[in-house]
Amino acid sequence: MQPGRGKENNENQKKKLNKKKKKKEKKKTETRISNSLTYLQKISDVIRPRHNVSRYLII
C-alpha cells in the first residue's frame, strides 16, 4: 500500500456523496414543485372545471 493513498480515496468518496446529496435534493424540489402544481390545478378545476380534467392526473 502506498503512503497517503487513503486520504485521496476519502476525498473522492466525499465528492461522490456530495454529488448524490445534490441529486437527491434536486429530485425532492422537483417532486415538491410538481405536487404543488397538481394541487393548484385541482383547485382551479374545482373553481372553473375544464373539459379535459385528466390533464392534471398525468403529472
Write the element-wise H/E pattern from the N-terminal end onward: HH
Number of domains: 1
Shape by Cα distribution: rod-shaped
Arithmetic mean pLDDT: 77
Structural class of the secondary elements?
A: mainly alpha
Major pleated sheet: none
Q: DSSP helix count?
A: 2
Helix % is over 70%
Model regions low in confidence, pLDDT < 50 over at least 5 residues: none
Count of β-strands? 0
How far apart, in Å, are the first and last alpha carbons?
Answer: 52 Å
> What Rg do the Cα atoms give?
22 Å
Strand content: under 5%
Region (Disordered): 1-33
Biased composition (Basic residues): 15-26
Biased composition (Basic and acidic residues): 1-14
Can you tell me about this structure?
This protein has one domain (5-58). Helix content is 80%, strand content 0%. The chain is rod-shaped and about 65 Å long. The longest helix has 43 residues, at 5-47. It contains two helices and no strands. The protein has 59 residues and is mostly helical. The chain has helices spanning 5-47, 55-58. Residues 1-33 are annotated as: Disordered. Residues 1-14 have a biased composition (Basic and acidic residues). Residues 15-26 have a biased composition (Basic residues).
TL;DR of this structure?
By secondary structure, this protein is mainly α. It has one domain.
Helix/strand layout:
Layout lengths: L4 H43 L7 H4 L1
Could you list some keywords that capture this structure?
single chain, 59 residues, mainly alpha
